[in-house]
Amino acid sequence: MNTNLLAVVTLGLTFFFYGCGGDKTAQNQSADSTQTINSSVASTNVAITGRLAELSLTNDSDWRGINLGDDIAKVKTIEKGKPFESDEKHIGYTIEFQNLETADMLYYQSNQKVSAIEVDLFLNSGQSVADYQKELEPYFTARFGTPKPADKTMIWTGKDGKSVTLTDVSKGKDFGLKVKIAQTGGVTTASAK
User: Fold this and answer.
1) Which of 86, 94, 107, 182 is the most buried (most CB within 10 A)?
2) How many angstroms separate the CA atoms of 132 and 121, rounded?
3) Nearest Cα to 139, choosing from 122, 162, 156, 126?
4) Rounded-to-integer distance, Cα 96 and Cα 170, Å
């Protein structure tokens, strides 16, 4: 009986001390990521995990391997599947995620070059919107510097003249985010209102 009690107490204390140590690690990680987010110096070295990986974002492109100024033909080789929309002004693709959420990407073109990128994320819940924001905001901050907040929008302006906006477009039971990437003062996309 005493042996069993001693084993249970030892096991309980082990879990307790392990749990306390895990909380300190999480607190240290939160502090470190806050320091990274508040940095005004843009860095392209961002960990691509979770939702960023689902979106196929990279450290060396504006969106999914595509940069503003790339040939529009490059979009057609990188994006998989058939475009849902294509004309002389833009080409659009959809990706679907396992949880029935989707993203529509419109690549605008001027003179056969990508001039702007617009992404609509159609999400299932307010929590999903918050989760995407928690990953996209530090990603864009690390790449383009400190954002300027506006009504339900974060705006980044990089030293390279690129502007990125991330807007919560949720209304009622329809949840979503919109991402726009363009040259500052550049091409206006169809939904720029």
Assistant:
1) 107
2) 9
3) 156
4) 19
Q: How many CB atoms lie within 10 A of CB 161?
A: 12
Q: Give the other-Cβ count within 10 Å of 112's Cβ.
A: 10
**Residue written as tokens 């091409």?**
187
Cα separation, 8 vs 11, in Å, equals 5
Tell me the per-residue pLDDT of 70-93, one tens digit each, with 9 for 90 and over.
Answer: 999 999 999 988 899 999 999 999
**Amino acid identity, position 53:** A
Which two three-digit tokens encode residue 121?
């994320």
Amino acid at 88: E
DSSP per-residue letters across 116-139: EEEEEEEESSHHHHHHHHHHHHHH
Treating both helix axes as pointing N-terminal to C-terminal, what angle do 2-38 and 126-144 enclose, rounded to 10 degrees? Answer: 50
Mean pLDDT computed over 143-169: 94
pLDDT band, very low/low/confident/very high, at 1 (cuts 50, 70, 90): low
Residue 172 falls in which region: left (phi positive, over 0), alpha (psi -120 to 50) or beta: left
Instruction: Give the pair of three-digit tokens for residue 190.
Output: 């169809």
Mean of pLDDT values over 139-146: 92
Say how far apart CA 86 and CA 99 lie, in whole Å.
27
Pairing status of strand 175-183 against strand 162-168 = antiparallel
Alpha carbons 59 and 20: distance in angstroms, whole number:
35
Supply 119's token pair. Answer: 């992404």
